[in-house]
Amino acid sequence: MAAYIFRRLLLMIPTLLGIMVINFTLVQFVPGGPVEQVLAQLEGGGDAFANISGSGGDLGVETNVVSGGSERYVGARGLPEEFIKELEAQFGFDKPPLERFLNMMWNYMRFDFGESYFRSISVVDLVLEKMPVSITLGLWSTLIAYLVSIPLGIRKAVRDGSDFDTWTSGIIIVAYAIPGFLFAILLLVLFAGGSYFQWFPARGLTSAEWDTFGPIRKVLDYFHHIALPVLASTIAAFATLTLLTKNSFLDEIKKQYVTTAKAKGLSENAVLYGHVFRNAMLIIISGFPALFVSVFFGGSLIIETIFSLDGLGRLGFEAALNRDYPVIFGTLFVFTLIGLVVGLLSDLMYVWIDPRIDFESRET
């Protein structure tokens, strides 16, 4: 197992490097870099993309975007050429793309992610500032989805074809068909003072006077605020995980070893949880890394916006909109690395659940 873990750790290096190279290359061809964002603000808050098209503003800045991510400004009326060169140097665009990429990766290897272009705060501090929202949505959504879907899927497998299986499948399919943002709006209208009841707050993770509360009231206030956004972000995950659990258990229940165990006089629960459970859970565990990373770190921009939550979803959207490259690439590097580590932990959980699995015997 030690050799397998070592090989997986080595494979993370080219995987992470490849992802960074692809995204860095794609960004070079996207118009409207941070220099143009600053020029647009100097022109009175205009759109940087309007400058690219040559429409200009009060200062009449015309741009010619070339590959490699640097911008060459031709005939910038009202802006000295020296000022534009200083601006490019400030953002690091006075260097060729390859040199910028190598410098960036060298800093990232030392976990130095720099500062945001437009917020005067380090990328690490910025992510930590937004992390509570993502932790709330991701952690509770994943936990609730597994706690509800796995027992429900097992029950549906045991009672396959029954009335319980039929009506629960109908509810699950309807829930899966409803987009998360639409369900969030429905919850907001019904239970957050939209048109009917005001049982839950409509914004934020805590109340404004949260610091003055006692410990128990702080916990209750926190859960009172997160109930609706967590439910909205979890609703779609129920269907996939429940049906996956059901089908996985059904496949195992139909196998010969289950019939043999029952013939030996073992009870249904002993067969189900002593033999079937370990084998059926393997496929469910295999999907955990993708679910964990997508829910925990991807963030939900729409749900965060609907419930006025300032998390990683909105951070990523604003960083892409403003061309805040340190935030874009810094978060991409960290979250990709975490995703690869979670994938490795998923393989180790395979062995923990079923010791018969031996990754060392696999050919590399």
Brief characterization of the structure:
This protein is 68% helix and 2% strand.
What does this protein look like?
- This protein has 364 residues and is mainly α.
- It has a domain at 124-361: MetI-like (MetI-like fold).
- The chain is 68% helix and 2% strand.
- The protein contains 15 helices and two strands.
- The protein has helices at 2-28, 34-42, 48-52, 81-91, 97-109, 123-158, 163-177, 180-191, 215-253, 256-263, 268-286, 288-296, 301-306, 312-322, 325-353; strands at 62-65, 71-74.
- A hairpin with a 5-residue loop joins β1 and β2 (71-74).
- α11 packs antiparallel against α15 (325-353).
- The longest helix is centred in the middle third of the chain and has 39 residues, at 215-253.
- The protein is globular, with a radius of gyration of 26 Å.
- The protein starts with a helix and ends in an 11-residue tail after the last helix.
